[in-house]
Amino acid sequence: xxxxxxxxxxxxxxxxxxxxxxxxxxxxxxxxxxxxxxxxxxxxxxxxxxxxxxxxxxxxxxxxxxxxxxxxxxxxxxxxxxxxxxxxxxxxxxxxxxxxxxxxxxxxxxxxxxxxxxxxxxxxxxxxxxxxxxxxxxxxxxxxxxxxxxxxxxxxxxxxxxxxxxxxxxxxxxxxxxxxxxxxxxxxxxxxxxxxxxxxxxxxxxxxxxxxxxxxxxxxxxxxxxxxxxxxxxxxxxxxxxxxxxxxxxxxxxxxxxxxxxxxxxxxxxxxxxxxxxxxxxxxxxxxxxxxxxxxxxxxxxxxxxxxxxxxxxxxxxxxxxxxxxxxxxxxxxxxxxxxxxxxxxxxxxxxxxxxxxxxxxxxxxxxxxxxxxxxxxxxxxxxxxxxxxxxxxxxxxxxxxxxxxxxxxxxxxxxxxxxxxxxxxx
Length: 427
Ligand code: CMC
Prior knowledge:
Bound molecules: carboxymethyl coenzyme *A
Strand content: 5-15%
Shape: globular
Strand order of the largest sheet: 1-2-3
Number of helices: 18
Largest sheet: 3 strands, antiparallel
Low-confidence stretches: none
CATH class of the domain at 4-65: Mainly Beta
CATH topology of the domain at 4-65: Rubrerythrin, domain 2
C-alpha cells in the first residue's frame, strides 16, 4: 500500500500521498491541498518546498554528498572534462567518444559571434559590470537567432540552441574582457578544449601558450560549478522557462539571479572581504566578531549554505586545487593565508559550529581565479560559464516534463481590507 501522511484541519482528516525519491528522499504531495481544504502552505525562501521531480543532481547537505546523474563529484573532478560533464548533465549519460565529438562539433559551428552582437558589446562602457553585460547580451541573442524562439523547439533545434549558448557565452565573456582593456578580440579555437580556449581568448599574446595544467585547473573549477539542483538561479531558470519564454530570456534571467552576493556573487564578495581584512592588518578575528554581531549586517562571505550543514564537497576539492595551482604558478598570495586563518578560526567558533556554517564553493575559488589573472569583477562570470550546462539541463528537463505547469505560487495576503476610494482633492 502506498504511504500517506495524515493532516487534520478543521476537525477533518485528509490523506496526502508521500512520494519517495531514488535516494529515499521523502516528500508530501500537497498538489490537491487547496482544492480539497482551501488551505495553502507558507514557506518563505522555499526551504521545505520541492518544486519538481528531477533526475539531474543529487545532493545530501547533511552528509556532504553531491552527484551529477549518479556520479560522485569527486570522481568527475578527477577523471572527466567539463564538456563530458556538460553532455552528462544535459543528456543523462556520459558520452561515448563519437557522441562527445558530435557534441563538440555542434559547439564549433557557433564559434563566431554575429556581427550585431559584437556591435552591441562594443557599446558598453569599459567599466560596466561583466555580469550585466553578459546577461543583456545573452538576452539580445534572441534577435539574431529567431529560429530558436519558438515555444515548441524540435529536438534538433533544442540541441543547437544549447550548443550555441555553451559556445557563445564564453566568447562573449572573453570578448568583453579584451575590449574593455583596449585589446583586439581574439577568436575562439574550440579544438583547444573549453577551458584552454577561454583562457586563450582572454589572455592571448603572440608566442605565448596557455599552460595545460592551468587550463586543467580551470576545467575542474567549471565541473564543480556545473549544477547544484534547485538553487536560486536554477529555480529562476525553471520559473522563467515555465512560461515558455525563449531559451535566451530564460538563461539571461538565471545569470541575473546568480549575480546576487548571497548566491554566485559571493565569490567576488569573498575576495573583496579578504582584501578588506588585509588592509585592516590581517586581523580576521575582528571580522568574525562582526559576522556574529546581530546588529551588524556583515556576514562572512563564502560561509554557510541553505542545504549543506556539513563541509561543501566542492570547497574541499577547491581548497586542495588552490594550493596546487598557486604553487604551479609560483604565486605567493597573502590572501590565501588570511583565508586559511579565517576558516580555521570560524570552524572553531561556537557561533559557526552551532549553526553548521562551513566554507562553501565560493570561499577559495576567487583566489584561484585571481592567480589565473581573472579580474575580481569577472569572478561571477566564471561561475556563469560553469553553471550554464546545469541551467540548460534543468530547462530541458522541465520543458520535457509532462507534469510541468507554469510556476505560479500563492500568497497569504496581509494588506488592508476593502476600503473606499477617496479622490485626490479630499485626501
Ligand atoms: N556569516 C554569519 N552568519 C551566518 C552566515 C554567514 N555567512 N550564514 C548564515 N549565518 C547565520 C544566520 O545569521 C542565521 O543565524 P540565526 O540562526 O542566529 O538567525 C543562521 O546562520 C542560519 O542562516 P540563514 O540565514 O537562515 O541561512 P540561509 O539558508 O537562509 O542562507 C546563505 C544561506 C548562503 C545565503 C547564507 O549562509 C549566507 O548569506 N552566506 C554568505 C554568502 C555566501 O557565501 N553565499 C554563497 C552560497 S554557496 C554558492 C551559491 O549558492 O552560489
